[in-house]
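[Q] Does anyone have a clean structure-token version of this?
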Amino acid sequence: MAESSFSRRELLRSAALAGLLLPAAAALSACASPAGGGNPGGSQAPATGAKTATNPLGIAEDRPFEVVIFDGGFGDAYARDIHEPLFKGKHAKVEIKHTATKEIAKTLQPRFAGGDPPEFINNSGDNAMDFGALAQDGQLQDLGALLDAPSWDDPGVKVRDTILPSAIELGTYDGTFSVLNYASTVWGIWYSKKLFGDNDWEVPKTWDEFTALCEKIKKSGRAAPFTYAGKHPFYIYETILTLSAKIGGADVLKNIDNLADGAWKAEPVAKAAGAFAEIGAKYLLQGTEGLDHIQTQTAQNKYEVAMLPCGSWLENEQKDTTPADFGYAMFPLPSFTGSDALPYGTLHSRPGEEYFVAAKSANPLAGVEYMRAMLSKDGAGKFTELVSTLTVVNGAADGRTLKPGLESAASALKDAGTNVTYFRFRQWYKELHDEVAAATGQLMSGRLKVAEWADRIQKKSDEIKNDSSVKKFTR
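[A] Here you go.
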């Protein structure tokens, strides 16, 4: 029997989460190889060609490759209409197979297990594969050659000098740059300028102002004050963690990422969780717990709810249902008290929307070259205009036409300066993300108290920390 280089732990866990029973699961449990073991697909030498000025990576000009895109908030038109034609402009003979799916893990898990992964993958969405396990199993192509390659626009400038340094930092696993975080996402509380203007509602800058605004909106009967994607509680746990960092400083999130003892029981985390639990008890749109992201966002477009937490892809995701005069805008989380460690205007912003090249695919260099095309100013600038999201490419949005919501996000990011926070455990430890999401949904619905919420998540964090089979990462 051919051995699988994809870990049994990751395969079975992801299959269970996706509701997928793989026929080979029982066999894999008996004879799965150690991390990094070989398989038929991985044993073949990758396709290569001659290195030239127009082909600096030396990809094979006569070999096809496959692009798999997560069909979520950004859709897949940017790949079909921008990046793939851009690539073909320099490599006309290379055939590209394009696939789009809303369920990355469910679709690709069997192919990784079988040794036939696609070359280029947009690993995103609620059903994304576990990056920590992918790294542990040697499935991520080393992208060092991409960073040192000449940029698409100027052969005298390396790719690494055209992108945000944070993109390299966040895409590095165990010392190797192996994941391209392409979109520069800005998180905040989103609202309609029209709805706020029509009702003389002011953007709050303190927590007291925020809760007073929620009470005012509730009493007005014009809309519910607040909602989030109840079926996907990441949206609200992101908000809780951002407020935690504002209260206690950036080390609050570093401790969580590093699986530090008691990190989830820290006072700033408890204060933030308690604050949003109160919002959940008093001000949520009715039925929030059973709604997904599209349903809550559409409710906002219908002026049924005033505010919701989301990332800067929101405007593009809702472009087909948003009224022309809606006026998307966002504001940063209000200051909790006057003694917050980080000032008003602090944002959760980080390179996101992850892409990787499968190291054990048949033609990985083509996937790396595809990334080089994506990181051109033309590829990144047109992406920004099409999906209303900034990228990690320096200056790519200059001179481009931005939609109102993206203008608002870009302005907030500029005002934040260096006061930007982020966390990484979601990508490093998917099992911890799953537990935080489930527990936070129960916190917001009143089925868990703050202390119980913290205990449950800390227990899972400790389990992962003490599990020698799980690769650990630090920041």
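[Q] Thanks! Anything notable?
[A] The longest strand covers residues 180-192.
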